Amino acid sequence: MSLFEHTLAEIQELLRKKEVTVSDLVEESFKRIQEVDDKVQAFISLDEERAWQKAKELDDQLANGEVDRPLFGMPIAIKDNIVTQDLRTTCASKMLENFLPIYNATVMDKLEKAGAITVGKTNMDEFAMGGTTETSYFQKTRNPWNLDHVPGGSSGGSAAAVAAGEVPFALGSDTGGSVRQPAAYCGVVGMKPTYGRVSRYGLVAFASSLDQIGTITRNVADSAQLLQVIAGLDEKDSTSANVPVPDYMKELNGDIKGMKIAVPKEFLSEGISEEVRRSVEAALAKFTELGATWEEVSLPHVKYSVPVYYIVSSAEAFSNLARFDGIRYGYRPEDVKGLEDLYKKSRSEGFGTEVKRRILLGAFVLSSENYDTYFKKAQQVRTLIRQDFDKIFADYDVIVGPTTPTAAPELGKLVDDPLTMYMRDILTIPVNLAGLPAISIPCGFANGLPLGLQIIGKQFAESTVFRTAHAFEQVTDFHKQRPQL
Amino acid sequence: MARITREDVERLADTARLYILEDEIEQMTEELNKITEYAQTLQKVDTTGVEPTTHVIELTNIMRDDIPEEGMDRDLLFKNAPDHEDGQFKVPSVLD
Questions:
Q1: Facing residues of A444 across strands?
Q2: pTM for this predicted structure
Q3: pLDDT by residue (tens digit) across B30-53?
Q4: Is A463 known to be catalytic?
Q5: What ipTM, to 2 d.p.?
Q6: Nearest-angstrom CA–CA distance, A308 and A380
Q7: Closest alpha carbon within chain B to A460
Q8: Each residue's pLDDT tens digit, A94-151
Q9: Local structure of A378: helix, strand or coil
């Protein structure tokens, strides 16, 4: 049995009892990567030498009985848009193929302090723009449950790495579903915290009003513990929230008797596959058994989420990606004629098609003649979507629905048609537009591919989301299923 | 709603400091039209008097005392620069 079948708490106990060493954990990780990553292709870069060195240091501390940090000796994989000092950070783009960050993201400093060991950087859609990890410049990551299918995206490498047992957990980022959707497709737990809960310092910006770093784990308790480590106010991110972080583990185990669950009818309408609908209905029956009640509600404006999202996120991306100019860092081609040509050639050759498409869309919606029709209008509808959620949360504790309309699609099926690809995000996008916390947990299978249940909470109510997810996990075993690789 | 033309895409690309290749431009034009046509559904929503959302959590200005701190090491800042000289980023000549 893999060591990573244990929960984080169990592994910490094994370390304390000296039944395993940190080197064992690191070996488990690299051994598994060696075995399966040729097939899964979750990693862009590995950090083997430093990981081993760190393991030895921690094992020395272990010998002195110093297992007092929350993630002591835990191998972790990091999405390749989170900057890691002296470890290549590419955003899966040719633009940053050789980029070596000179500082750490705040979450990396926190992980380091907590005793975690970075084993490598995971594949993603280029600059996090996509839902299949197919827009990566480097490689196509496969779904560990069926190698002909996508792992989802944009944090596809992180979700696949956890599902394949290469690491016990990983970090991703979620702008429109990029943690929850691949977690659902890969049968693991994906948590997107409230906007502002986790510092974005060192997360390469895609859409600054939507981006949030999230966790990918094998169970809900690990998710809560990992978030505990990375959450909190950071003076380096002025949008990080000055809201106290509760003790998530302490609040995990309460029952959900009397909890009021809202089920938006828009989340189970047309386009949702029969298997997904059935798995959500079965989950609701479980919640009823656990003493919660649920009612159907309506979020009338969520049907506009997809256009609102693509307008807002592309506008923000247009401005954020202006920094890639071929001068201070990033790709620069040979043989340029003047400064203008340098900018244009660097960007045209450095960015892939999907990134360029979104930059152009951003330029379009921000241009003076279109600003009111598109950008301002989208921001106004965003307000209406937020108000829809506010109204529901005045009467209910959580919102429950599917994470995705279907199980993971086959490779190559969506990438050619942007509009169809965008439509698949309709269940996850509204959550980012309203800045809410949401988790995806395994809730069933369709043709051998995992399905995810999404639980959405009020702003900063991650505890309630965790408790609901944990209660479901206690009475089901979907999260214990493993792919055969 | 006027359709986005090939010339529009060329102009947008110029604003975004991008070259769009000949064989990409037709496809980009078509795709942008598809996406913006779809975005037209927003025009049906009555947003009279609705404040736009720029941010989902309340942001306030953060004040602190103006105390100088150690900045990033300058040599380190050039680590990823494609070209630099004498403590400056180097670009091709701006004027002909």
A1: A451
A2: 0.97
A3: 989 988 898 999 999 999 999 999
A4: no
A5: 0.95
A6: 9
A7: B57
A8: 999 999 999 999 999 999 999 999 999 999 999 999 999 999 999 999 999 999 999 9
A9: helix
Cα A447 from Cα A460, distance rounded (Å): 36
Is residue B16 within 8 Å of A360, Cβ to Cβ? Answer: yes
Which residues make beta-bridge pairs with A263?
A296
Pairing of strands A75-79, A169-173: parallel
Residue type (1 letter), A437: P
Distance of CA B45 to the CA centre of its chain: 27
SS (H, E, C) B10-37: HHHHHHCCCCCCHHHHHHHHHHHHHHHH
Residue A445 φ then ψ, to 5°: -140, 150
Distance from CA of A321 to the nearest CA of B (A): 9
| Set A54, A79, A345, A458: catalytic member | A79
Q: What is the pLDDT of residues A323-354, one digit of tens each?
A: 999 999 999 998 899 999 999 999 999 999 99
Give the strand pairing for B88-89 and A293-297.
Answer: unpaired
Nearest beta carbon to residue A381 from set B35, B47, B93:
B47
Q: Is A155 a residue of the active site?
A: no
Q: Which two tokens stand for residue A455?
A: 């639980």
Range A414-421, long-range pairs (CB < 8 A, 24+ positions): A414/A131, A414/A132, A414/A134, A414/A150, A415/A130, A415/A132, A415/A134, A415/A135, A418/A354, A418/A357, A418/B31, A418/B34, A418/B35, A419/B34, A419/B35, A419/B38, A421/A130, A421/A131, A421/A132
H-only helix segments in A64-104: none
* Predicted local confidence at residue A450, as pLDDT: 98
Contact with chain B for residue A435, Cβ under 8 A: yes
For the stretch B13-23, pLDDT in tens is 999 999 998 88
For residue A65, pLDDT beyond 90: no
Mean pLDDT of chain A: 96
Give the Cα separation of A70 and A433 in Å (integer): 32
Nearest CA in chain B to A88: B80
Confirm whether A17 is a catalytic residue: no
Across the beta sheet with A75-79, what order do the strands follow? A43-46, A117-122, A75-79, A169-173, A213-217, A189-192, A438-446, A449-456, A398-402, A260-264, A293-297
- Check B42 against A301: CB less than 8 A apart: no
For helices B22-39 and A353-366, the axis angle rounded to 10 degrees is: 50
Q: Are A276 and A446 in contact (CB under 8 A)?
A: yes
Note the pLDDT of residue B22. Answer: 85
Query: How many alpha carbons fall within 13 Å on the CB side of residue A140?
Result: 12
Nearest CA in chain B to A316: B54
Contact between A306 and A423 (Cβ < 8 Å): yes
